[in-house]
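Q: Sequence in, structure out?
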Amino acid sequence: MVFGVVTAAIKTGGADFMVQKYVEKQKKVDWRRVGVFTTFGFLFCGCWQYFLFVKTFPRLFPDVPKFINKPIAEKLRDHRGLRDLGIQVFIENGINNAIIYFPIYYSIKEMLKGNQNFFRDGFANYVKNAHEDLPAIWAVWVPAQFINFGLSPMWFRVPFVSLVSALWTCYVSITRGKLEEDGVSEMMMMDEQKGGEPGVVQ
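A: Exactly. Output:
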């Protein structure tokens, strides 16, 4: 577990570092931004997904190794295996990616920006960007997890997810990485500093 969690943290932070250096070509690396991704990689990609995929899924779906080893023709006739495949993809994309991933990411981002109301404002940013974030994450992870849960040998699951995750993290870094772009949280903080209600124009 420790190796996997540390690797997830380094991989996620490293993806943002690479984006800053070689995609955005920043002259100076924003290490606080790297810290956001590293912390997120440690907590979500490492700790939480270890619990979900290594501890929980095998108990919920004990027949997965048998399903994976079947030829495709047999898989298509295995109604229970196909049902389990659909449930795994739904848990990953309908729950994990849809309502856990981005609220945690935005909350960590707000916390490391020094925002004391990081949960509230992180969730506000999740709601604000959901119309773009959710279709993007589903476009990548729905087909990826159908392939992973349905076709990948057990030994290849972690390398496959690591590869897709690294590419996906680069996309998140490019589109949602910059710390100054969260207009919702900044507006709320400015309103509170003026002594008014969050989001209410005085």
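Confidence is low (pLDDT under 50) at residues 197-202.
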